[in-house]
Amino acid sequence: MLSQAQSKHLKCLHQKKYRQNKGEILLEGHRLIQQALTAEANIQKTWMTEDYAESTSGKELKKVLADKHIVMEKVSEKSIQKICDSQNSQGVIAVMPHPKFEPMNNIPRCSLYLDDISDPGNLGTLLRTAVWFGIDFVFLSEDCVDPLNSKVLRSAMGAHFHLQGIMTISPEDLFNKFMNADYAVLGSDMNGESLENLHIDLDKGWILILSSEAHGMSTSLRSYITHNISIPGFGGMESLNVAVAGGILLHSLTQHR
Q1: pLDDT, tens digit, for every residue of 191-207?
Q2: Domain 4-97 maps to which CATH number in 3.40.50.300, 3.40.50.150, 3.40.50.2000, 3.30.1330.30?
Q3: Which residues are bridge partners to 115 per DSSP?
Q4: Collapsing DSSP states into helix, strand and coil, what is residue 155?
Q5: How far from the centroid of its chain's Cα atoms is residue 76's Cα?
């Protein structure tokens, strides 16, 4: 059973300042916890409901937890739901230290810079998409939502545990390095050119900038861009969702590998 102090602690992990102070994050749901375990993340403890524990998924997870000597405790559905940020809990939560990322010793050959992405679902989906297309490093502007936000974690579905680095960094600190390395700095822009019409030596390395739909690209970023790129559309919509656009562009950029 969760004590009042434990319940308060876990619930407070939804707050950025509290997460940073404690150095811990809360994982909600079977798939996210399973991905963390697969990636050898340092899960400290799990809590699950009786119904979940007796389900097929619960029995599979219990075996993995036992093999890894991770403490598991059964609690009521009400206790779990009180802690979870999601509307309907899956009956299982876990706590672990912040993921540890590698320092950027060398400029990644292919990477992503996310500018002012404030929607947690979009950021999580972009992290998940980056992993799918083999991107190891994702850089964030200071205006992005916290990548360890509970909704970001759920949307990313374990991407945090497969990326080598997620780094918040200013354009000045990052892009001067890329400019000096002769990489292609690609800015996603409604008025840009289709990748098919541009002659870019992608083998030299590239970084793709994706910006907020609401505010567009920051002025400070535009001076670093070597190519403005866009996705040709044939309907009457004004724009694509940034996560959808990111998936399409990453597919185009990585299919030559």
Answers
A1: 777 777 778 888 889 99
A2: 3.30.1330.30
A3: 211
A4: helix
A5: 30
